[in-house]
Predict the structure of Histidine triad (HIT) family protein.
Amino acid sequence: MSVSRPDCLFCRIVAGEVPADVVREGERVVAFRDVNPQAPTHVLVIPRDHYPDAAAAGAARSGLLDEIVREAGEIARAEGIAETGYRLVFNTGSAAGQTVFHLHGHLLGGRGMEWPPG
């Protein structure tokens, strides 16, 4: 794991080089609105440090995934969707739909979610 990568879009957002609609910042995570929202609330929650995906962050055993989930819950409460329900998605790998290879959780809510997704 490297702290940041100059070729990574999300590392550049964390560094303030690329603008984003930030909704919450913490010591280890940043959350911002998705530029292509798939629901009325669509926020990406990312670590400040670069991990390529959820599996890499989990293997590091740093508690980072717990922190991302906790922050997503706080955002859901602030956005008014915690009571009605929300979805938190981690795509891992291109076959799963991951397009930016920096760990990010998609917080989706504000509409009904179907099952199965995809």
In short: DSSP finds three helices and five strands in the chain. Residues 9-109 form a domain with the HIT family, subunit A fold (CATH 3.30.428.10). The beta strands are 22-25, 29-33, 41-47, 86-89, 105-109. The first strand starts at residue 22 and ends at 25.
